[in-house]
From TrEMBL:
Organism lineage: Bacteria, Pseudomonadati, Pseudomonadota, Alphaproteobacteria, Caulobacterales
Any one GO CC term of the record: membrane
Top-rank taxon: Bacteria
Positions of the AB hydrolase-1 domain: 35-289
Entry-linked Gene3D superfamilies: alpha/beta hydrolase
Listed name of the protein: Alpha/beta hydrolase superfamily protein
Keyword list, A-Z: Hydrolase
Source organism (scientific name): Caulobacter vibrioides (strain NA1000 / CB15N) (Caulobacter crescentus)
Pfam families noted in UniProt: Abhydrolase_6
GO molecular function: hydrolase activity
Length: 296
């Protein structure tokens, strides 16, 4: 196997309107960016290191920390948020400053939806989309979320948003974070290496010597509540091929044939035996799909 597989990614900071986006970069520096990878809510770029590293043998991959996550310093004020358009605009800004030909956008959960919204805004900068169990609500629920009389407060009462608000944010050290998450809740199906990377990229030092989550609980909860963007409209505007890998269990993707028909070239596949954490459970399949789309 090529030694590039085992190289650590390079840390990179990209200036965009309003601040800077932190990222990890894999693969040859003399090659244009092949893939931009966008993480799920509450996660970070480093979480997906073992998924993306093997692609570095022949492809150049940029995995970003979204606003309010990881090492990215863009302001993250949850007050009054209604949609993920701020995250979309950050990714649009990133694509606008990257050199080279159009890239594949890939993302998990919220990151997949943000990638779709971005491709609708900048179709000329996107070669293809790989969406890993993206958050796509039923059409009527999306219509309700966009209604002028809604503010996101209703969605903030959802159990998943309330659980985020109650999430413990401060720990004695990184070891305590790892021990607290290992084998529990959403992390039951995660390989230990990916959990260790999630902790390494998602925890920062606090002034008192302890550590805290880089993604504040209030920001994570606001991402669950802010659903007034419209993936159903966005898919109509995307010109590149779209491939959706959908979880069999506990999926956040309610897209089906009706959603696919709205786009020009949309393929939806349900991956047997997977949950919403499909990239952790089937990294081999996701990696093959990324390589196929980037080299098409």
């Amino acid at each position: 196997m090529d030694a590039a597989v085992f190289r650590e990614p390079r840390r990179r900071v990209v200036a965009v309107p309003g601040g800077e986006i932190a990222a990890l970069e894999f693969g040859p520096e003399d090659r244009a960016i092949d893939i931009v990878f966008v993480h799920a809510n509450g996660f970070n770029a480093q979480t997906y290191r073992t998924l993306l590293s093997p692609l570095a043998a022949g492809l150049r991959v940029l995995a970003i920390d979204q606003r309010g996550h990881g090492a990215t310093t863009l302001p993250a004020d949850p007050k009054g948020r209604r949609s993920w358009r701020d995250l979309r605009d950050d990714l649009v800004g990133l694509l606008d400053v990257l050199d080279g030909p159009p890239a594949v956008l890939a993302g998990h959960s919220m990151g997949g939806t943000v990638s779709l919204l971005t491709a609708a805004e900048r179709p000329d900068r996107v070669k293809g989309l790989l969406l890993l169990d993206p958050v796509i609500m039923p059409w009527l629920a999306n219509l309700y979320a966009k209604a002028p009389w809604t503010s996101g407060r209703g969605f903030l009462q959802l159990p998943i948003a309330q659980a985020a608000l109650k999430r413990r944010a401060v720990f004695d050290n990184r070891e305590a974070v790892f021990a607290g998450y290992k084998g529990r809740g959403a992390f039951k199906t995660w390989p230990e290496t990916m959990l260790a990377d999630y902790v390494a990229g998602g925890v920062v030092d606090a002034p008192d010597g302890k550590v805290r989550l880089a993604c504040a609980p209030a920001w994570e909860a606001s991402n669950y509540a802010a659903q007034a963007h419209d993936p159903w409209r966005a898919v109509r505007r995307v010109t590149a091929p779209v491939r959706i890998l959908k979880a069999q269990k506990h999926s956040t993707c309610r897209a089906g044939d009706g959603f696919a028909r709205r786009g020009r070239d949309v393929r939806i596949e349900t991956i047997e035996g997977t949950s919403h954490f499909l990239p952790m459970e089937r990294p081999d399949l996701v990696r093959d799909a990324l390589f196929e789309m980037a080299t098409a």
